[in-house]
Sequence to fold (140 residues):
Amino acid sequence: MSSRILSIDYGEKRIGLSVSDPTNIFATTLETISNSNNSIMQILKIIDSYNVNTILVGYPLNMNGTMSRLCGVVDEFITELERQIQVEIIKRDERLTSYVAQSKIIEAVGSKKKRQDKSLVDKFSAATILQDYLDEQKKN
Fold:
């Protein structure tokens, strides 16, 4: 079974998830989970079921490249993940991913009401982070 890459768009309320295909060429949205006490356990199950060997975590830098308030929260989340699994975790700049995700949602989702579902933005943001990474890997 091929190893896959999991992408996480971490938010204080919701966590968007995306996974690569087995050949690590395409990003596919998975789901958005509530950020709660059992979020790590849910993510560990996904890591196991998809045979994930690398995790990308969106890193919420300010537009000028400085660390935002949320960077510390994301660092704590990464530390907790690292305590529980032995998988490579890579921080990825997530500036503008929500904007790109919203554009993709407009293209992919017909209903205006469905487009306003915030959980869609989270998982599409995770997919954007992952697809950018996969495209970079292909170039290198």
